[in-house]
Amino acid sequence: DAGITQSPRHKVTETGTPVTLRCHQTENHRYMYWYRQDPGHGLRLIHYSYGVKDTDKGEVSDGYSVSRSKTEDFLLTLESATSSQTSVYFCAISESIAISGNTIYFGEGSWLTVV
Amino acid sequence: KQEVTQIPAALSVPEGENLVLNCSFTDSAIYNLQWFRQDPGKGLTSLLLIQSSQREQTSGRLNASLDKSSGRSTLYIAASQPGDSATYLCAVWLPTASKLTFGTGTRLQVTL
C-alpha cells in the first residue's frame, strides 16, 4: 500500500468554523490531490498540487484552499465550514501526470460532518 | 465537459458467475482509463490501467477492455467470489488537465 496518511479520519464541526485536513505521504510523489466523494456525484477534484508551493483549482474549489510547503504534506482548509461541505474527503498521490501511465494512489479518507 | 457513466449502479450475482461492469465516457480523447475498487469506509484501490493505445489489460480474474472510438470500457470479472463485493469505479484522465474524471460506480454484491 502507498504510504498516505490522512488526518483527522473523522471530524464533526459547527457551521462557520475553520477546518484543516492533512494529507501526509512517504512516497515522495510530485502530484497530490484532494477529492470529495458524495452520493450521486462520485469523486470530484477540489484542488491539486504539482510541486511544493504549486497548486491549482479543480472543479469544486469554491470554499476551499490548499497549501503545500513540503513535498510530503498537502493541507486542505475549509475557511468557514458549511453544511454542503459535509462529505468524505480523499487525498491521492501520483508520481507524474497521466500521459506516463502512472497510477494514482488514494488515502483512506476523512469523514467530515458540518452541523 | 467529460462525463463518465457507469451502468448499472448496483448488481447482485451468485458466487461463481462471470460478470461485466460497464463504463462509458463522452470524450474519446483520453490518455488512459483506470478501474478502481472501493470497499465500504475505505479509499480506492487501483485495479487496472489501460493506456489509450491499448485495447485491454488483465490481472488475475480481471480483464478490462477499452474502445476509445465508442467511448466504452468494460471490466470482466471471472468466477466471482464474495470477496469481490465492493464498489467498482472507472475514471479517465483528461488530456488538458492533470486530473481524473470518475464515474459514480457500480456496487457489486456476490452472494453465497
Can you lay out the helices and strands and say which pair or pack?
The complex is a heterodimer of chains A (115) and B (112).
Chain A lengths: L3 E4 L2 E4 L5 E7 L5 E8 L3 E10 L2 E4 L6 E7 L2 E6 L8 E8 L9 E3 L3 E5 L1
Parallel strand pairs in A: 2-11
Antiparallel strand pairs in A: 1-3, 3-8, 4-5, 4-9, 5-6, 7-8, 9-10, 9-11
Chain B lengths: L3 E4 L2 E5 L4 E7 L6 E7 L5 E8 L4 E4 L2 E6 L4 E6 L8 E8 L6 E3 L3 E6 L1
Parallel strand pairs in B: 2-11
Antiparallel strand pairs in B: 1-3, 3-8, 4-5, 4-9, 6-7, 7-8, 9-10, 9-11
What are the key terms here?
heterodimer, A: 115 residues, mainly beta, 11 strands, globular, B: 112 residues, six-stranded mixed β-sheet, five-stranded antiparallel β-sheet, 0% helix
In short:
The complex is a heterodimer of chains A (115) and B (112). Chain A has 115 residues and is an all-beta fold.
Provide an overview of this structure.
The complex is a heterodimer of chains A (115) and B (112). In chain A, a hairpin with a 3-residue loop joins strand 4 and strand 5. Chain A is built from no helices and eleven strands. With 115 residues, chain A is an all-beta fold. Chain B has 112 residues and is mostly beta strands. Chain B has no helices and eleven strands. Chain B has strands spanning 4-7, 10-14, 19-25, 32-38, 44-51, 56-59, 62-67, 72-77, 86-93, 100-102, 106-111. Chain B starts with a strand and ends with a strand. Chain A binds chain B through residues 4, 31, 33, 40-45, 48, 50, 56, 58, 90, 92, 97-99, 101, 103-109, and chain B through 4, 31-32, 34, 36, 41-46, 49, 51, 89, 91, 93-95, 98-100, 102-105.
